[in-house]
Design a protein that fits this description.
By secondary structure, the chain is α/β, with parallel strands linked by helices. The chain has 19 helices and 16 strands. The chain folds into three domains: 127 residues, Alpha-helical ferredoxin (Fumarate Reductase Iron-sulfur Protein, Chain B, domain 2, Orthogonal Bundle); 167 residues, FAD/NAD(P)-binding domain (3-Layer(bba) Sandwich), CATH 3.50.50; 168 residues, FAD/NAD(P)-binding domain (3-Layer(bba) Sandwich), CATH 3.50.50.60. The strands form four sheets. It has a five-stranded parallel sheet, sandwiched between helices. α4 crosses α8, α6 runs antiparallel to α8 and α9 packs parallel to α19. The longest helix has 20 residues. It starts with 21 loop residues before the first helix and ends in an 8-residue tail after the last helix. 46% of the residues are buried. Bound molecules: flavin-adenine dinucleotide (FAD) and iron/sulfur cluster (SF4) (2 copies). One iron/sulfur cluster binds next to α6 and α8.
């Protein structure tokens, strides 16, 4: 009888690729997990029980054919595993690194629910496509027929890039506009290198360029070119601009110098530490934690990225203030554990009510020129559940104290910019949250020939959902192009 290559979860334990020692990794921006060796990837893939109804697949936003590529990996058919993996995912090696697997595919793996550790789906997905890159299996788009229609994409993040890739594969001419100097959106300038090394993103950008995607960088739509001009130039337009407006702190001293936005702090770090750019605010120390006491406010993944970046920059101390407790934070528990190992202190059930500042800097302008010295912190407890069922934080009277801070980083979440006003486009409908109103599954907006994908539609979300949106949108857009309907300029 042939040997059963799968269902080894009973005899083989779950094992992740080696995680670098916290003392070592806290000093650099390299990824913290090593790659699986081939034998280890095969062994871990072989733990899958090949479910007839795979919950891992239904809880993956891309509905990746996980059982099949696990089987093919376990049986040494890696090139076929790659073909199946990339058929549903534009950037499998990126998702394998940064998807919150514990909430998606792995969190729904049935063998975990039967008491065994989940299959390491993300790590195997990363291994398959990293190996495909090494072996030259990843190729630029080479459409059989070039089409004459062109699509303009505003925003070079994962949503825009996934759409660009699908369109080029169909032979459509694609131009991507972005206000940054490098493509990738938050993959490049938001997410730190210790989660996603930048050469992994840059090789994808090159692949798209090699496949014929034209990038127009340093081009802020609404300033350097109008939205109307883009509509005129192209047969259809996809808006993929993400969400960048930072939720602000209120209270006395909230405008003090030294209270900075997470996106500015992370962008400066990514530029200086991963690309070697000269960033004046980093050089001056304004956006550099070296030798400083850092307080990060927030409990999401952005806050986790800030605290871990501050550790790597050599901060004297790093504290994360969050108004709920550990169990009720929105960020990934895996990232909290990584941060704690690296030396971050979490101050649960605490929220700032104001800030004191020190001496006014000579030459600094305005009444807000004082530099932050402490955060005034209130301790909280969790009260009765609100309408959503989540326990609301309540202030504990008389519990206020001062937390020393040289830099306070605001990581309270992001909101959309007001695109209709910025772009002078009344007809572009938005929701009451300011996100672009787009049809579910196609991304069609209120304007003919204009589609929208990713965070600008969903609000701050995940890379894998932006990829899904980009791919779904192109399927609808191609149908419209074929029917001659997607004419952007009216
Ligand atoms: P973005 O990636 O934001 O890209 C939008 C692009 O549009 C940008 O390049 C921007 O420059 C450009 N743009 C905006 N306005 C204009 C304009 N007017 N003209 C020209 N260009 C414009 N998700 C995960 O799945 N896993 C993670 O670990 C994770 N970590 C995160 C960490 C941080 C710090 C942050 C902020 C987010 C994180 N996310 C994570 C969320 C994820 O990055 C986003 O959901 C995803 O990048 C959204 O993709 P997008 O293409 O919609 O937008
Ligand atoms: Fe899991 Fe994300 Fe990969 Fe889907 S794309 S299988 S959710 S890691
Ligand atoms: Fe395999 Fe787990 Fe998916 Fe079942 S749920 S197919 S065991 S990875």
């Amino acid at each position: 009888m042939a040997k059963q290559p799968m269902l080894k979860f009973v005899t083989v334990d779950r094992d992740m690729p080696e995680k670098r020692d916290a003392k070592v990794r806290a000093h650099d921006f390299d990824e913290i997990y090593a790659e699986f060796a081939a034998a280890k990837a095969e062994e871990q893939a072989s733990r899958c029980s090949q479910c007839g109804v795979p919950y891992c697949q239904s809880h993956c936003p891309l509905h990746n054919n996980i059982p099949d590529w696990l089987n093919l990996t376990a049986t040494h058919r890696l090139e076929e595993a790659y073909a199946i993996s990339q058929a549903t995912n534009t950037f499998p090696e990126i998702c394998g690194r940064i998807c919150p697997q514990d909430r998606l595919c792995e969190g729904n793996c049935v063998i975990e629910q039967s008491g065994h550790g989940t299959v390491t789906i993300g790590a195997v997905e990363k291994y398959i496509t990293d190996t495909a890159w090494e072996r030259g299996w990843v190729k630029p788009a080479a459409p059989d027929v070039e089409r004459s229609e062109s699509v303009g994409i505003i925003g070079a993040g994962p949503g825009g890039l996934a759409a660009a890739d699908m369109l080029r594969q169909a032979g459509v001419q694609v131009t991507v506009y972005d206000r940054y100097d490098r493509a990738g959106g938050l993959l490049t300038y938001g997410i730190p290198g210790f989660k996603l090394e930048k050469d992994v993103v840059m090789r994808r950008i090159k692949q798209l360029e090699d496949g014929g995607v034209i990038f127009v960088m340093d081009c802020d739509v609404g300033k350097d070119i109008s939205f109307a001009e883009i509509r005129e130039k192209h047969d259809a337009v996809i808006i993929a601009t993400g969400v960048y407006k930072t939720r602000d702190l209120t209270g006395e001293g909230a405008d003090s110098k030294g209270i900075v936005r997470a996106i500015d702090y992370l962008t400066a770090s990514n530029r200086a530490s991963n690309f070697g750019d000269i960033v004046p605010e980093f050089e001056s120390g304004e956006l550099n934690a070296a030798g400083k006491k850092i307080v990060v406010i927030g409990g999401g993944d952005t806050a986790m990225d800030c605290v871990r970046t501050a550790i790597r920059q050599g901060a004297e101390s790093v504290k994360c203030l969050y108004r709920r407790d550990r169990a009720n934070m929105p960020g990934s528990q895996r990232e909290v554990a990584n941060a704690e190992e690296e030396g971050v202190e979490f101050v649960w059930l605490s929220a700032p009510v104001g800030f004191t500042s020190g001496v006014v800097e000579p030459g600094a302008a305005g009444a807000a020129a004082g530099v932050v010295k402490t955060a005034m912190v209130q301790r909280m407890r969790l009260g009765a559940p609100d309408a959503s069922g989540r326990q609301s934080p309540e202030v504990i009277d008389g519990s206020d104290y001062h937390e020393d801070a040289d830099i306070v980083i605001k990581a309270l979440g992001f909101e959309p910019e007001d695109l209709p006003t910025l772009w002078d486009t009344d007809g572009l409908e938005v929701t009451r949250w300011g996100t672009v109103r787009a049809e579910f599954g196609s991304g069609k907006t209120s304007l003919p020939g204009v589609y929208a994908v990713g965070d600008i539609v969903r609000g701050a979300s995940l890379v894998v959902w932006a990829i899904r949106d980009g791919r779904d949108c192109v399927a609808a857009l191609l149908e419209d192009l074929n029917a001659g309907a997607a004419i952007a300029a009216e």
